[in-house]
Amino acid sequence: MGVLVYQDNDHQNKPETGTAPVYAVQAQDTVLSKEELVTKFPKGFTEGVGNLDGEYKIRLDPTVQPVQHAPRRVAVALQPKLKETLDDLVTQEVIAPLTESTEWISSIVVAPKKNGQLQVCLDPKDRNCAIQREKYEMPMEDIATRLHGAKVFTVLDVRNGLWHISLDEQSSYLTTFQTPFGLYRWRCMPFGISSAPEVFQHKMYELIEGLTGIEWNVCLNPEKIKLQQSEVLFIGHMASNKGLQVNPAKVRAMTEMPVPTDKAAVQRLLGLAQYLAKFFPHLSDITMPLQDLTQRDVDWVWGSTHQAAFEKLKEAVTKTPVLRYHNLKEEVTLQCDASQSGLGDEMMFKGQQLVVPTALRRELLEKTHALHVGIEGCICGARDTLYWPRMSTEIWEYIRKCDICMAHSKGQAREPMMQHDFMARPWSKVAADLCDLDRRTLLVVSDYYSNYIDVALLSSTTSPAIIKELKAIFASLWIPDYLVTDNGPQLSTAEFSVFAKTWMFEHRSSSPSYAQSNGKAENAVQTIKRLFTKCKASGVSEFQALLD
Question: In sequence order, what are the residues at sequence separation of 6 or more whose Cβ sits closer than 8 angstroms to the Cβ of residue 224?
Answer without folding.
Answer: 155, 157
